[in-house]
Each structure stands twice: as C-alpha cells, then as structure tokens.
Amino acid sequence: MTITLAQTTTLLATVVFMHGVSALVWATLAMVARIAPRASLTMAAANACAAVALTLMARRGAWPDAWTHWPADVLNLASFALLGAAVPGILTSRLPWRPAAAVVVALSLVMLALPDGGDMRWQTRIVSGAGAVLVLVAGVVAWRHLQGLHGRRTPAPLALPLFLIALLLALSCASSFVAPGHGHDPRSTEPINLALLWLALLMTLLQNATLAFLVMMRLIRRIERLLERDPLTDALNRGAFDQALAQAHAGWRRGRGYALVMIDMDRFKQLNDTLGHAAGDAALRWMVNEVRPCLREVDRFGRLGGEEFCVLLPDTDIAGAALVAERMRALVNATPLRWLEQDWPLSASLGIAEAEPGDASASAVLARADAAMYRAKHQGRNVVQA
C-alpha cells in the first residue's frame, strides 16, 4: 500500500486539531465552569504543548532547526509531564508540579547537550521513554486512589487507559531502534510514521477521555458527599448512618461483630440560651473535631439529630468500645470552648452497646446504646455507661 504525503499531512493536522480543541475545552472547564480549575488548566496546557510541538515538528526543514528541534522535543516532554501532574490534581486536589517541572528541566538540558543532526534517536528515546514513565506513574496513582476510595466497588479500571498510553509511548521509544530516522519528520510517508501518527491520535483521545471521566467521577463523589453529610459538622447524616448501620448488622449475621457509642453533649440547651445558637453550632463542630482522632478508617461517625451523635465501630466488642468512648470523653472534657473572649466548659455523656444474639435489627443495638447514654446523663453527666 502506497502512503502519500497528503495522508500523513491530513492525519498530522487531525492530531494537532484534536489537541487544540481539547485545550480549549479544558480551559473552558477551568475558567468558566470552575470544575477542578487547577487540574483542568494543567490539562489545557498539556494539550497546547502537544499541539505546538507537533506543529513545530511538521515545519522541520522549512523553518530554522533552532525553532523546530529542541523546542519541539521540550514541549512534547512537557505535555506528558503536565498530563502526569493533572491526574493526581484531579483525584486529590494536590497538583505535584514541582517533580514534573524538575523532570522537564533536567531532560531538556540533556537533550540540549545532544548533537543536532539527522539522527534523532536519542531525542525520541528521551521524550517517549520519559513520557511513558510519567504517564505510568500517574496511572499507578490513579489506580491506587480509586481502589482505596471505593473498595470492592472500585472504578479503578478507569485508570487502565493511562497504562495503555504508557505502553504506546514505550512502543514509540522502541521503534527508534527499528527506524532511527522516524522522529525527524512527522510528515514522512514511511509506514512506521503513519502508524505512529495513528498512535498519537489514539493517545490524544485516550488521555482526554480518561481525564474527563476522572473529573466526572470527582463531581459525582462531591454530590454523593453532599447528600450523605451533615452540613454543619461534616459527620454522616441520619440516612447515611442508618445505611452504614444496616450494613454492619448484615455483617454481624455473618460473624462480624460491631459496637456503638452514643454521644450527647451535656448542658447543650444552657449553652445555646447563654451564648446563642452560633456558639452552639461552634461547640458541635469543635466536639466533632476533637473526637475524630479516635476513629479508624473503617469507623462511621454520624449525627442523629441536635447534639446527639453515634459512632459505629466494626469488629469491636464492648470492651474495645469502652476504651474508645473513654478517650472521646476525655478529649471533649479537656479543653473549654472559647467564644467571644469567654471559656465555656464542655463535656459529653456516652453510652455504649454491642450487637448481641437475639438482636433482630440494628435498631435494638441503637436503643441499648441510647439507653446507656441516658443512664450516663442521670449519673451526673461526663461519664461513659454500658
């Protein structure tokens, strides 16, 4: 099959066009929709760098080499570094731009020291090899984060396209050993160059679609969090906590025990009447922040209503729950609430209960913990009762 210059030029223009459109879309998401703005701007920059790099490569031979060789390679490398930084930026809101910048600067200096000529093997190997590593690291970060976020229902396969992009870049690096001159002119009519252009188009679509899915997943998670969280304290709301409790009771029937700790702030009405409802809200937030260090990742902390909270402790017996509850009581009682230059002493009464044979539902365990909490109130408050 004969490959014409028009075919390669058209395919190259398509790749550049896709990068340009993607850069505009990501910039719009960042600046207009305000969706993951820093990560979206990073993706816009990654696509812009790739588009400019391919344009410069296409002009090799027509424009001075000083414009089309080293700058194009640096921009290509920067596009992969920016892609690698955008992935954790979308997933965790932390943009690791310093490591990406360090890689680009170091390898750019290495390529600047390489002799410039017809043999572009080392430039191709550096750009493609480093790009493969950067994207592979981003894929591993995405996989681990998604897996840890959702457990068995993980959407971790969303990260698979990143591994495919890394593989394609590794193949591009390997091809420099087979066809040493392919990196010199992307308009070449050699079959391997046409294959690489198709790979470049595939990578453009994959990387932007993958990051778009990650952004969508982040938005979904944010909506889910808003639906299941108490807006004042960021604890689980009653519906979300009841769901977690029902799941724990289903696990108890399969042999996994659990315990509950009911928490009720003491003299909360008096605090509201004396300092105002704003102080009461501040006291609830303060108490939640104080007891959080006592919780494990598997524990669930919910607000049942008013000043009443409950902690679900999976795989915990009554003795373990008593230890956790006592630590919580001590933390709440240790430091007073500072409000308008006035200290207000805080304390909480806690009741604990463990799932036992004969409990038809989780509500029976919850009722025992609630009854224990009221006994703690009647015993003088600021105590733990089982």
TrEMBL record:
State the reactions this protein catalyses.
2 GTP = 3',3'-c-di-GMP + 2 diphosphate
- Gene3D superfamilies in UniProt: 3.30.70.270
Sorted alphabetically, which PROSITE patterns does this protein's record hold? GGDEF
* TM helices/strands, residue ranges: 12-32, 39-58, 70-90, 97-114, 126-146, 158-178, 198-220
Which keywords does this Swiss-Prot/TrEMBL entry list?
A: Membrane, Nucleotidyltransferase, Transferase, Transmembrane, Transmembrane helix
EC numbers listed for it are 2.7.7.65
The GGDEF domain covers 256-386
Broad enzyme group: transferase
Name this polypeptide is given: diguanylate cyclase
